[in-house]
Design a protein that fits this description.
The protein has 367 residues and is low in regular secondary structure. Among the domains are: 247-296, no CATH class; 312-357, no CATH class. The protein has helices spanning 284-287, 307-310; strands at residues 320-324, 326-328, 340-346, 352-357. The chain has a four-stranded mixed β-sheet, with no helix packed on it. The protein starts with 283 loop residues before the first helix and ends in a 10-residue tail after the last strand.
Length: 367
């Protein structure tokens, strides 16, 4: 080497591989080339030669890695290589993509490509699990296949588990009514959640018509939800019932009262013997004097005609029957004041001098 220094004799060329200055490790005096190669004489890293110029370098399909070939390869046997994950310069998925190495299987849960967030190079399985990796909804895994899904007894709800559950503590769950997909009563049935109590008023199962999810009580009340009669609530227990001085009757409240205005009474008589609404206001007890549904007739023998109540009001004077001689109708003959009557010329009652029809009407004010 004291001669082969470029002065006394040819020395190492500029493109010589980085090596020690002891030429005898590789070259022989009788035949300078070809040289016997000894990796021990190389003074630089593998890639200084294995770069595609001096020697074969990394192929195009080589896994992403550092230039430190020696981390995996050795000089005695280039392949197979001992694999050292520390040499990799890219994320796991740079190799674990189904080409260089096994990638995510078709049945892998939806996740990011950052394998290292769950797996490690020393033990691939079991994996440490991190929910933060996931790129899809909870239910894409919590479906009974990848992970436990909704049980058969789960309340009807959307698939957005995260609306109630969280990844740190699955139970107890924070409940959000907006995630429920069924009606209130699908949960509030005494199984999933408190349902109607035994003393609840008879009503439909649509809880939301009266109750709210933020404050269950007090409830807003809608009579349209009630399935029973008025008296099933207005009985002095659930709601105010008939007072002690109430008119004695068995008909239901709605026949007289309304849900918008309880005190304004509106009753429609449907009895065929009802004479009709009078022109002046008539109180219930004007006819129902005994506080009973049965009206009190002054003259029961004239029931149900006008004379049944107004027999004492009848005046014969204006009610002429004949003129020669003058005779008058009796109250019995004109018991129905709203009917027709005639004035005859004589007592034969064969010739009508004047006819009157509908002279009186109960709804007229000029009685």
């Amino acid at each position: 080497m004291q001669c082969h220094n470029g002065s006394s004799a040819t020395g190492k060329s500029r493109d010589h591989v980085p090596s020690a200055n002891d030429c005898g490790f590789c070259h022989r005096t009788l035949s300078w080339t070809p040289a016997d190669f000894d990796h021990q004489t190389v003074t630089s890293i593998c890639s200084s030669c294995h770069n595609g110029t001096f020697a074969t370098g990394k192929s195009r399909d080589h896994i992403p890695s550092t230039e430190q070939c020696e981390l995996c390869h050795n000089v005695d046997r280039w392949s197979p290589a001992d694999f050292d994950h520390q040499a990799i310069t890219y994320g796991c998925s740079g190799c674990h993509n189904g080409t260089f190495a096994t990638g995510k299987s078709n049945s892998h849960i939806p996740s990011s490509e950052q394998c290292e967030l769950c797996h490690n190079v020393n033990v691939w399985t079991p994996a440490d699990f991190d929910h933060q990796l996931f790129t899809s909804s909870c239910s894409s895994c919590h479906n009974g296949a990848f992970a436990t899904g909704k049980s058969n007894s789960h309340i009807p709800s959307s698939e957005q588990c995260e609306l109630c559950h969280n990844v740190n503590v699955w139970s107890p769950a924070d409940f959000d009514h907006l995630s429920a997909t069924g009606s209130c009563s699908s949960c509030h049935n005494g199984s999933f959640a408190t349902g109607k109590t035994n003393d609840h008023i008879p009503s439909s199962e649509q809880c939301e018509l009266c109750h709210g999810v933020n404050a269950w009580t007090p409830a807003g009340f809608d009579h349209l939800t009630i399935t029973g009669s008025c008296s099933s609530c207005h009985n002095g227990v659930f709601a105010t019932g008939k007072s002690s001085g109430h008119f004695v009757t068995n008909i239901d409240c709605f026949e007289c009262h309304g849900t918008q205005n309880w005190t304004a009474i509106h009753f429609v008589h449907r009895s065929p013997s009802y004479p009709g609404d009078h022109s002046r206001g008539v109180a219930c007890n004007d006819c129902h004097q005994s506080n009973s549904e049965q009206a009190t007739w002054t003259a029961p023998n004239y029931e149900p005609d006008c004379a049944g109540c107004h027999v004492g009001d009848y005046k014969s004077g204006p009610h002429k029957k004949t003129e020669n001689p003058d005779t008058k109708y009796s109250v019995g003959e004109l018991r129905d004041c709203t009917g027709a009557c005639h004035i005859y010329t004589d007592q034969t009652l064969t010739t009508i001098k004047k006819s009157r029809s509908g002279e009186h009407r109960v709804n007229r004010g000029d009685w």
